[in-house]
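Good morning,

Attaching, inline, the backbone tokens for the sequence recovery test we're adding to the shared suite. The designed sequence is right after.
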């Protein structure tokens, strides 16, 4: 089968080619056609069809004094229930307070084969104003909005290599395209005076866009249905949080749980989940050991569980796919059309909610009770239950001692036998 030039075919012909070559059959081609999106066809290369991710709602989380509803895109059962559960607890205090100290994106311009790195650094220091002007001239609208290139930081890398880092305020955008344009312009300017520049590119390690979120929850809000007192839950959550500072094996799992919520909101808001993910994990290892991003402690008087999280977060509310995908605009509307700072505060709040719900479950009834109960619907579909059979099978699984594929299959067979 020949693939060269496949990308030049139009969508109909791309699908037809797959059918003719027995990669897919006619029914599958129909499924692709049903999920065709003209926007999708413009967004990515070799476009086939839109792969749907279920979208659910976090109904109410209080962020900086405002109650927000937050759409979340995820395929994993129990994530959205947990976010709601966590937010319900966060809202019992005065909600989440989240803010940036600064919000800048970094572009690296890497100079190589320098005979004298000191002389190069001296040149950059002396010409900082000029280099900033070059950067701003490459994308003047950003400066006109009050943003643009604000500073230059010199990052010596080895005895022959120095990165010239341009720090850019991207206003309401995430800034990738802006900063890349600026970094390339600065690279060109440095080349023109004789320096060898390897490349200019943004960094997704957004250490100049660290958001910090805090919450204080009255311990009574944490008590469980099974009868564990709120004060005990609070102590155990704090202990669990401390474990994430001790062992990366626990920290990675806890951060995965945080990313359950973070990625779901980042994706729903039309932002780049990979950029956020890469930056978050690098920051988690900032001290040299990978640690949990969130921390929970009990207040000295034992009355409050205090939570905090600090993470690099560069999100936009304009640019990229945001303006072109109607579902993203719908999601922004549900959140009250937040600006970039508010969207980031929402994401940081969801991170705390998600982590708290998981830790509370882990240190009380265990994760499987809640998670597996909600997994039952997916399990029912996996073993072939029809839409009408799903509620019957879920009810049977909830009563069953085991929730797994074998028990689901056996219970489904029973349901069908009883129906005959
Ligand atoms: P529960 O205590 O049985 O629920 O929790 P409840 O019936 O008492 O409801 C409490 C609230 O939870 C509700 O308030 C809802 O807000 C929400 P209400 O509306 O009644 O006033 N809620 C739901 N929201 C939407 N849909 C639902 C739903 N059920 C409850 N169906 C629950 C049950 C699953 C929420 C709880 O056990 C929980 O939060 N578990 C944590 C689950 C979790 O973290 N899942 C993520 C996947 S596991 C993972 O990937 C991460 C992990 O490894 C991370 C780590 O190790 O740190 C765990």
């Amino acid at each position: 089968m020949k693939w060269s030039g496949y990308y030049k075919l139009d969508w109909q012909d791309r699908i037809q080619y797959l059918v003719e070559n027995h990669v897919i059959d006619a029914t599958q081609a129909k499924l692709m056609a049903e999920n065709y999106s003209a926007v999708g066809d413009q967004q990515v290369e070799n476009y086939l069809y839109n792969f749907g991710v279920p979208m659910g709602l976090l109904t109410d989380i209080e962020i900086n004094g405002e109650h927000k509803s937050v759409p979340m895109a995820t395929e994993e059962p129990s994530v959205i229930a947990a976010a709601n559960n966590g937010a319900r607890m966060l809202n019992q205090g005065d909600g989440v307070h989240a803010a940036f100290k600064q919000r800048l994106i970094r572009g690296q311009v890497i100079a190589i084969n320098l005979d004298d790195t000191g002389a190069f650094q001296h040149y950059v220091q002396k010409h900082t104003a000029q280099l900033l002007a070059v950067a701003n001239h490459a994308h003047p609208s950003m400066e006109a909005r009050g943003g643009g290139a604000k500073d230059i930081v010199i990052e010596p890398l080895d005895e022959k290599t120095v990165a010239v880092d341009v720090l850019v305020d991207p206003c309401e955008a995430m800034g990738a395209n802006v900063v890349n344009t600026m970094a390339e312009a600065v690279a060109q300017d440095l080349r023109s005076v004789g320096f060898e520049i390897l490349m200019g590119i943004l960094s997704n390690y957004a250490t100049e866009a660290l958001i910090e979120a805090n919450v204080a929850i009255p311990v009574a809000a944490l008590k469980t249905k099974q009868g564990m007192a709120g004060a005990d839950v609070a102590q155990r959550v704090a202990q669990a949080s401390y474990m994430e500072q001790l062992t990366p094996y626990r920290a990675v799992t806890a951060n995965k749980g945080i990313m359950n919520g973070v990625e779901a909101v980042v994706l729903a808001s039309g932002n780049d989940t990979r950029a956020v993910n890469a930056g978050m994990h690098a920051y988690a290892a900032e001290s040299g050991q990978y640690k949990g991003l969130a921390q929970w402690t009990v207040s000295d008087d034992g009355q409050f569980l205090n939570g905090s999280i600090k993470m690099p977060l560069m999100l936009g509310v304009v640019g990229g796919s945001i303006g072109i995908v109607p579902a993203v605009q719908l999601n922004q509307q549900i959140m009250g059309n937040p600006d970039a700072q508010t969207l980031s505060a929402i994401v940081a709040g969801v991170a705390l909610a998600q982590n708290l719900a998981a830790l509370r479950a882990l240190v009380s009834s265990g994760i499987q009770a809640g998670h597996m109960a909600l997994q039952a619907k997916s399990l029912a579909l996996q073993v072939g239950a029809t839409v009408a059979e799903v509620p019957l099978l879920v009810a049977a699984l909830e009563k069953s001692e085991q929730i797994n594929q074998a028990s689901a299959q056996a219970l489904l067979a029973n349901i069908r036998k009883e129906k005959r």
